[in-house]
Design a protein that fits this description.
Elements lengths: L13 H4 L2 H17 L3 H18 L7 H21 L3 H6 L4 E6 L2 E4 H26 L3 H10 L4 H30 L10 H32 L18 H22 L11
Antiparallel strand pairs: 1-2
Main location: membrane
Keywords: Membrane, Transmembrane, Transmembrane helix
Subcellular location: Membrane
């Protein structure tokens, strides 16, 4: 069976052995550093570190290929939209203009604009591997326990855990319903025209919605019968105790965040300007 999208992938790696709290805190610090800085040097370092951590995690690229392709398409559209609505943003930020070629009116291609959008792209490449790794290397129950240990109400934490568990269930139901409908002669392949394929997809969506509602009702009844929410606190079976590796990882993550912020803001400008 194919690996489910955005679901826990069990591997024997240093990343998997870390506590869910550690991975959540590291992800928050990593995202903060990436979002606040426009220093290309910092972003390149974070990108290289993301790739290294991804390799250490032993998660294969094919395991997240579909989601990655979807994100890259969104990134491409985002870059196009940035240029359409603000083609001179790089010029305004860096204060110089090195025109490569003109298109029409205020639309021209400058090195500054390309450099600015390169930094935007780097931000995605820094955060995306970290986000995907956090999702696929953290068991939903452990993630819920981590949220609760950080002060989040256990009802909210458990809801997040159920949502993450539900993603692969929806994918399995979708495939089963699609195969059943195809066995009844409903063609969803590229042999049909796009409009016809969209209409045929409706034959999958409705059964999927009803099966999802039925599962939600079953889970809700089961939780209610077991007295979920009666107590103010609860224990967690899947929680992991902190080990030396967790403390070391948190220290390294904090050091990277502090150094990144210092390099970014020490001169009062978070944009690295190679043109001045």
């Amino acid at each position: 069976m194919a690996v489910e999208m955005l679901s826990y992938i069990e591997r024997e790696s240093p990343v998997h052995r870390l506590s869910g709290v550690t991975k959540l805190v590291i992800f928050m610090m990593w995202s903060t550093a990436a979002m606040l800085t426009y220093d290309t040097r910092v972003l390149l370092f974070l990108f290289a570190a993301s790739i290294a951590i991804f390799i250490v995690s032993k998660v294969k690229l094919r395991d997240i290929a579909f989601v990655l392709i979807f994100i890259l398409i969104f990134l491409l559209l985002n870059n196009i939209a940035i240029y359409i609505f603000s083609p001179q943003e790089g010029v305004n930020i860096y204060g110089t203009s090195h025109v490569l070629f003109d298109i029409a009116g205020r639309y021209n291609v400058t090195i500054e604009q390309l450099f600015y959008q390169f930094n935007i792209t780097l931000k995605y490449f820094v955060v995306i591997p970290a986000a995907l790794l956090f999702i696929v290397t953290t068991h939903p129950s452990e993630f819920a326990a981590s949220l609760n240990r950080m002060g989040v109400n256990y009802k909210i934490a458990y809801s997040v855990s159920l949502a993450l568990r539900y993603i692969p269930d929806i994918q399995r139901d979708f495939r089963m319903i699609a195969q059943s409908q195809q066995a009844r002669g409903i063609d969803l392949s590229r042999n049909e025209k796009l409009v016809k394929r969209v209409k045929n997809a409706a034959a999958i969506i409705m059964p999927l919605i009803f099966s999802s509602l039925e599962r939600i009702e079953t889970i809700s009844n089961a939780m209610e019968l077991r007295g979920f929410g009666k107590k103010k606190k609860r224990t967690w079976y899947s929680t992991k105790a902190f080990r030396h590796a967790d403390y070391l990882t948190l220290f390294i993550g904090l050091a990277i965040l502090v150094v990144s912020l210092y390099i970014t803001f020490h001169d009062g400008d978070r944009f690295y300007n190679p043109f001045c």
